[in-house]
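Quick one, probably user error.
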């Protein structure tokens, strides 16, 4: 279960966060014995530093964690880095940080308690934390719960997280918040004009589907679209084993929009929310779609398949076309779409593309405040010709190897013509453990979007 803040208690242990460039002044204000103890412990307040000050009876009087130098930006969740080393107990954060920095500290303390223990008993978090004065505890708890949902879904292997299980996760979330959730299954996708979703998923014994969740009756309309490829073999353009090893995370876009949906609904934002998830498994059998096939789409555009491993943009295309038909105020898609995005910005940044000037202006600042970094990439019109083959309207995998993330984004933009559109090409995975972010599944961009929505939608 996601962590929440503990109720305030007079027995809570003070957790004092100190910058390394002010540590000497901090120690100078302590009694000599306490200051000497911390110096003996080697506490210099670097990031990840932790020291405990004992009472005479051996209990903990106070704990100190390091923030590093003021203004450092190399490490997110610096408080969590040190707090992870604390002995068991309930702690009350005492810090000079305010505003976004204080929110980040509180968020990191809760996120550091995340454990994925579905298959192997994991050690429970030893520490509990009281919400620091000045933070919106309910908001932070909603963000933590949404992030933990995304992590759990991504971390679950494909054997237990296929299209059916992803649907059940969406249904469970909908039930928890009083939302409606409908599903279009199998051949009904063809009858209701979702040919690309059906084509990508038809080779798997696990039935392809489109999940459609709605919530809210007033306010501006927001539609989230998440790529739900629950496992990607690459299809007939079969991936090598090394590239297939992490493909349980290819539904990371779906996991992230569900986490974001939880945040929105838990905080009861005044908007009309729709979540669309094309959920498929890209498998291989005699019915698999082939390189060279020309496919029809819901939008009426034809697509030449030059690589069956570029299937995510196909299933998203039909879902985006449906989203655009309602002309909401904003459409946001999230997908683990291209390796090119990882080459460009690595695993820690969420690259995004947008046709929405307000989103382009607001999102980077919101991301900074939420410790959820993003980077804007261009819808570069000059590359449109790269996605236009000779025998169809669109090419799903342009040759040449250049600008792979941009051309994928341009492909998706062709299916959203009526609505301001933002697309995230995320990684959805932490390859190396970091403070408050264990190795494994990761929601990316959700907190940044949550913080940007009030200004973008005029909430």
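Nope, works fine. Designed sequence:
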């Amino acid at each position: 279960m996601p962590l929440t803040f503990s109720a305030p208690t007079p027995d809570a242990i003070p957790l004092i966060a100190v910058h390394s460039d002010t540590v000497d002044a901090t120690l100078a204000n302590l009694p000599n014995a306490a200051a000497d103890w911390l110096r003996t412990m080697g506490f210099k307040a670097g990031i990840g530093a932790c020291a405990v000050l004992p009472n005479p009876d051996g209990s903990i009087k106070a704990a100190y964690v390091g923030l590093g130098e003021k203004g450092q930006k190399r490490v997110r969740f610096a408080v969590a880095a040190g707090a992870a080393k604390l002995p068991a107990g309930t702690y009350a954060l005492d810090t000079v940080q305010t505003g976004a920095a204080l929110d980040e500290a509180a968020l990191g303390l809760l996120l550091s308690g995340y454990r994925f223990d579905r298959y192997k008993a994991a050690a429970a978090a030893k520490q509990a934390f009281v919400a620091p004065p000045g933070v919106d505890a309910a908001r932070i708890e909603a963000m933590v719960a949404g992030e933990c949902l995304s992590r759990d879904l991504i971390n679950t292997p494909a054997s237990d997280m296929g299209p059916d299980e992803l649907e059940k996760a969406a249904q469970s979330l909908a039930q928890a918040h009083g939302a409606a959730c409908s599903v279009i299954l199998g051949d009904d996708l063809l009858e209701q004009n979702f040919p690309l979703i059906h084509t990508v998923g038809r080779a798997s014994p696990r039935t392809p589907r489109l999940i459609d969740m709605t919530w809210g009756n007033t306010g501006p309309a927001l539609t989230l679209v998440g790529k739900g490829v629950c496992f990607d073999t690459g299809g007939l353009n079969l991936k090598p084993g090394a590239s297939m090893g992490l493909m349980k995370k290819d539904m990371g876009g779906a996991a992230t929009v569900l986490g974001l949906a939880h945040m929105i609904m838990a905080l009861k934002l005044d908007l009309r929310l729709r979540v669309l998830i094309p959920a498929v498994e890209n498998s291989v059998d005699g019915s698999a779609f082939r390189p060279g096939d020309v496919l029809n789409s819901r939008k009426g555009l034809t697509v030449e398949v030059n690589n069956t491993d570029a299937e995510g943009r196909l299933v998203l295309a039909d879902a985006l076309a449906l989203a655009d038909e309602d002309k909401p105020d904003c459409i946001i898609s999230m997908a683990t779409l291209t390796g090119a995005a990882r080459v460009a910005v690595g695993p820690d940044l969420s690259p995004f593309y947008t046709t929405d000037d307000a989103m382009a202006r607001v999102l980077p600042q919101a991301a900074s405040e939420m410790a959820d970094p993003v980077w804007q990439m261009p819808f570069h019109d000059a590359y449109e010709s790269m996605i236009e083959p000779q025998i169809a309207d669109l090419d799903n995998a342009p040759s040449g190897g250049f600008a792979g993330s941009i051309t994928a984004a341009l492909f998706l933009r062709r299916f959203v013509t009526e609505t301001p559109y933002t697309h995230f090409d995320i990684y959805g995975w932490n390859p190396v453990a970091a403070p408050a972010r264990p190795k494994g599944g990761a929601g990316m961009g959700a907190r940044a979007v949550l913080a940007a929505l009030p200004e973008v939608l005029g909430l």
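The two ends are 30 Å apart (CA to CA).
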